[in-house]
Specification:
Shape: elongated
Largest sheet: 8 strands, antiparallel, barrel
Number of helices: 5
Radius of gyration: 32 Å
Order of helices and strands: HHEHEHEEEEEEEHEE
Structural class: alpha+beta
Strand content: over 45%
Helix content: 10-25%
Number of strands: 11
Distance between the termini: 30 Å
Strand order of the largest sheet: 2-3-5-6-7-8-9-11
Amino acid sequence: MKKIVLLALMAVCANGMFAQTEDGEANETANETVNKPKAKFSEMSKEDMAKLWKAFQSYAMESQNDTTPDLSEVPVYGRTKFMRRNYISQRLEISIIGGTDNDLEDSDGLKSSYKTSDDVDDAKDGKSYFNYGLNIGYSVVIVPGKVNGDMLKLNRFGLGYSFGLVASFDRQEHYGTTCDVLAKIGAEAGNGHKLGIGVDFLVGGGKTAGEYEFDVEDDKGNVENEVLPYTSWCFKYGAQLWVRSKLLSVSLKDTDVRLFARYVYSVNPEDEDALAKSGIACNWMEESWSFGLTFCYTF
């Protein structure tokens, strides 16, 4: 509303100045024949215009819906010493992710999913396969501060730490559904500021894809290579990096958008040497990379 009134005021002033110029020119042309009374207009100097433009910019900035305002002080809550000296918040996170799983030995080819031996050759030639999925998470964030009366003054750089859980699920064309269920502990900077960055260390378990590759001889003595895809539960660990910026925002209160990249290593639950002695090659997808946008609600 303020911005609309300000625009109207600028339009009225501009029209007045334009009308004054036209009247001046007309009077100079007809000053010998007709004497017309000149309308009185208030002159607006360059300084006044500069002040008006500055005020307009200020109101325009205030009208923008910024969901991550600067936060330097919060009321003191709790009775214990720890609760009084730390700002504690909770986060709910949801992401749409994309990524790839690959065998460590053939990671240059980004081999992620294939069904036949021809698909294996395609992967080794550099053709990659992306998978997509959903990620949800929950975090408790703790930011230390200094008590000043009834207020808690947060540390200057917004340094804090967090712990929580993250679960991700994706469906791969030839393997089915794989998942990660991981506990996380992390550190971050920029809590309560326009720009934030953090890193989380992950550990847990889940289901990862793999495949058995072996030769089969038919009745005619012909040998064919067979590939059998599968999934298996295993132990996992990894890390993720996230970045938050005011350039990424949504018009929802206490909600921000973050970019993240995650690496997870899956430990093969099977004995590959024992399988190799039986003539079976186990191509286990040890490495998993995931990327995406996280919508994060803080409460």
